[in-house]
Amino acid sequence: MSTQSVTGTRPTSSARVRVHSASSDIEQARALLEDLYDGAGWTATPTDMPFAYRRTGVGTADILLASARFTGALSGLLRTEQDYVVSWMKRGRGAVRIDRALMPIERGAPILHAADRVAPFEYEDFETNVVHLNKSLVERVFAESTGSDRAVLSFDAAARPTGPALRGWWQAVDAAARTLLPDAPDAPATALLDAEMARGMATAFLAAFPHEAPGPQAADTPGTARTRQAVDFVHAHAHLPITSTDMAEAAHLSLRGLQEAFRRDLDTTPSAYLRSVRLERVRQELLVGDPASTSVADVARRWAFGHLGRFAASYTNRFGELPSVTLRR
């Protein structure tokens, strides 16, 4: 028997969303979670415990607090392209692979599944709490707090919050839980209350997890800010079928203006820059992939490289080695 329901979709303004899914079928539960996290190569196997899966959550347009329970062994590649996802384990065992090193997950310690990379994981008979933070919200709060241009952030996935930053994170989680999970189930939500709660979570998140804002380092010419907007759009949407037209719209430029901006500021074309970012994503997956189960061809196709010969040549020219060599490292 299985159930899955979502009350509404990711909402706007002060609307609340509640999510619930459950299953007594291990394969269906695996498929539900793999689809939720845009995963790849997930496998699920029974353990000595009777199988059960349940996930519940409540949130707004910018934040979701959820909990999940899965009695079984689960592993695969995790992606979080639209949200920053922080989880902490309440029960069970788990580990994530970062730069080929398997890092055990400490019970009760928050870990970040960063939105700019894939992360192999292994979990068993686990119960976790999870916070999803809207990526755009975090970038907006970063830009406002630093007075800088809004940028796609890059996080240190191996870092673990400590000291005052960790205490600040838990205080923000507690405040969000008290806002989203009131004692009175029908307590009214307000747009102002939810917005301030979400901003508080984003601020605590940025303080807890080390990060930097990559981007072109061109001189501050009139076109540079628009170029950065296009670059940030590419990094955020490289997994989608975007075009130069989409990049131009994101940067509020004409197609000709986009081409000129990329030539002047980056000495490349928009299409070449997009291919370069996708090559980097391929390399990330190959560096953490298991040679026994990862296919170079599958990873290349997932990032829109359909002609494997040209892909291999481009990859070798960029990184100085064949993709198969990267995978075997």
Overview of the molecule:
- The chain is α+β, with helices and mostly antiparallel strands.
- The chain folds into two domains: 1-151 and 158-213, Jelly Rolls (Sandwich); 224-327, Arc Repressor Mutant, subunit A (Orthogonal Bundle), CATH 1.10.10.
- The chain contains eleven helices and eleven strands.
- It has helices at 26-36, 135-146, 163-180, 191-208, 224-237, 244-250, 255-266, 270-288, 296-302, 308-319, 323-327; strands at residues 2-7, 17-23, 40-45, 53-59, 63-78, 83-98, 101-104, 111-113, 119-134, 154-155, 211-212.
- The strands form two sheets. Strands 1, 2, 3, 4, 5, 6, 7, 8 and 9 form a nine-stranded antiparallel sheet that branches. It has a two-stranded antiparallel ribbon with strand order 10-11.
- β4 and β5 (63-78) form a beta hairpin.
- α3 runs antiparallel to α4.
